[in-house]
Specification:
- The structure is a homodimer of 323-residue chains.
- Chain A is of the alpha/beta class and 323 residues long.
- The first copy, chain A, has helices spanning 40-58, 94-102, 111-122, 182-185, 187-198, 205-210, 217-225, 229-253, 269-282, 302-322; strands spanning 2-10, 14-21, 26-33, 60-69, 73-74, 79-80, 105-110, 131-136, 140-146, 149-150, 257-261, 293-295.
- In chain A, helix 5 (187-198) runs antiparallel to helix 8 (229-253) and helix 7 (217-225) crosses helix 8 (229-253).
- The relative contact order of chain A is 0.15.
Chain lengths: 323, 323
């Protein structure tokens, strides 16, 4: 019977499940809507049942599981905490439910850390020992890989680059601080800053793109491509502060690479060209050629890839101890 | 014959040399003026001769050496680079000179990293796995200890917290960036900000303390103790931005402790009380009780202590490989 590991990425809207042989061959993948309205027990029951089906279809035996979820988690005790993007999952014993069902090692990790590990092993960060992964999306988060391992820090709180302060006299953040990187450069705040500017009645293509709907960061990126003045100015400010935030990470950690993923990173050269020009201006302690800023390569797969790495490592450890 | 390791801290003004038995007992310490005007070869010859004397006096046999110096260094090739606080030490092969003379393992490390390691093993950071050491002095620097080891990063450049940007619309730094932590909170810049303010003719005790001499950070600390209004306002701003800088370190790395040393840290409660109040306001991702800000404990000994740790570890490794 072939042995497989499972990687599971439980997001606020989608769940991805992948089975992989120990040689790295992926033998089955499933994607489900999360359906948060159904509540955690029903959702997890669906995942458990889906894995059962996948195992039955492939005739495989499960040996370990890696799961990633949005923060906050209690990784040591295998709990999803509150407040989470997954509503009502307060102190939810997710690890125990999987252990009880399959009787194998189960590792829980937050989604940004898992994505960092995924990019480190399979993606843009492969071949490096120390990388920082930054996801620029609705919010800004990330993960730090040191010596090939996720660096957790106290309370698994490391890597919260979205809440480093880059504009102390800036905008108040949801987190309570003022001037967090997120208050300028996250998708949510790119859209907010644009709306605030358009409120003054300046003509802009964004008004047409949004029509009756809401302004989104995607529209702004589209308007930048079309050289809309408001969009270009908002985008320049975004790149400027993102470069400061990333520069501060590099000044502190001097990683071999900073890998940037998330929805905003899909702007591609529009983001990476200015970042590669600006970040060296904000980092004086490393020569520009040692500053390595790369787009993530795994897209929405990074989390499930990281979960698979965790599952594989957990199995190697169990196996090692047993042998 | 007893076996000893040597720790050497070569600073811009002073050199400290310590011999320690492998059980940790310190059997000899010497302090010399650096006398930078004599040039590197003469200085190192003095250090080599002093060690010879110390070994002769104690009847000990040297088994390994740890050296710390100001940046920039090429740690891998054992070179002091330029520009350094040690003038004319360009590409100076310090490690080779010690190896040639004593025929033992020699480890080179920058002074801030060595101080971080010293505080980690012997000082305020002992008992923790992950700490950040920050030295607030003429400049601001530091070192990062992860899993009990110095974290170097690319080009040994990690831990340059003095050049993280906390006020993007602030003052230009020597390093070329704008608004580095150092441009507000280093001793040099605390004095500059004070001088700029006094230039407007505001009455202040600092004028009396400085008399005909130059305003120093020490005078400002003294004036704060005496509740001088200008000094208190300068100090409050200093603590505010230092708290943002330290907060950003904590938000990124979630270390178990941040240990603060250097001349400015000798202000004691005047610095640590506001920092402990302010930093939690700038770190939303960790509860206040997990934020641990401590004064360094080894003072000017931190570098030589770190150099001893490096020597001991180098010897253990050699011994391990030989056995």
């Amino acid at each position: 019977m072939i042995e497989v590991i499972a990687g599971i990425d439980i997001g606020g809207t989608k769940i991805a499940i992948a089975l992989e042989k120990l040689n790295g061959e992926r033998i089955a993948v499933r994607r489900l809507p999360t359906g948060v309205e159904n509540g955690p027990y029903s959702i997890i029951e669906t995942v458990l049942r889906t894995i059962d089906e996948m195992l039955a279809e492939t005739g495989a035996r499960l040996v370990s599981i890696g799961i990633c979820c949005p923060s906050p988690l209690d990784v040591e005790n295998g709990l999803i905490m509150s407040p989470s993007n997954l509503m009502d999952w307060e102190n939810f014993p997710i690890v125990k439910l999987f252990q009880d069902r399959f009787g194998v090692a189960v590792v829980l990790e937050n989604d940004a850390n898992a994505a960092a590990l995924g990019e480190h092993v399979y993606g843009a960060g492969s071949g490096y020992r120390n990388i920082v992964y930054v996801t620029v999306s609705t919010g800004i988060g990330g993960g730090i890989i040191i010596n090939g391992e996720i660096y957790h820090g106290v309370n698994t709180a490391a890597g919260e680059m979205g809440h480093t302060i880059v504009q102390p006299d800036g905008t108040r953040c949801n987190c309570g601080s003022v001037g967090c990187l997120e208050t300028i450069c996250s998708g949510t705040h790119i859209a907010r800053r644009t709306r605030e500017r358009l409120a003054f009645g300046e003509p802009s293509l964004i008004n047409d793109l949004a029509e009756s709907g809401e302004v989104t960061a995607e529209m702004i990126v589209e308007a930048v491509r079309q050289k809309d003045r408001v969009a270009v100015e908002i985008w320049e400010e975004t790149c400027h502060f993102l470069a400061i935030g990333i520069g501060n990470i590099i000044t502190l950690l001097a990683p071999e690479a900073v890998v940037i993923g998330g929805g905003i990173a899909s702007a591609g050269g529009l983001l990476f060209m200015p970042l590669r020009r600006l970040v060296p201006q904000f980092v004086s302690m490393l020569p520009a050629e040692k500053i390595n800023i790369m787009p993530a390569e795994l897209g929405s797969e990074s989390g499930v890839c990281g979960a698979l790495v965790l599952a594989k490592r957990a199995y190697s450890k169990t196996y090692q101890y047993a042998a």
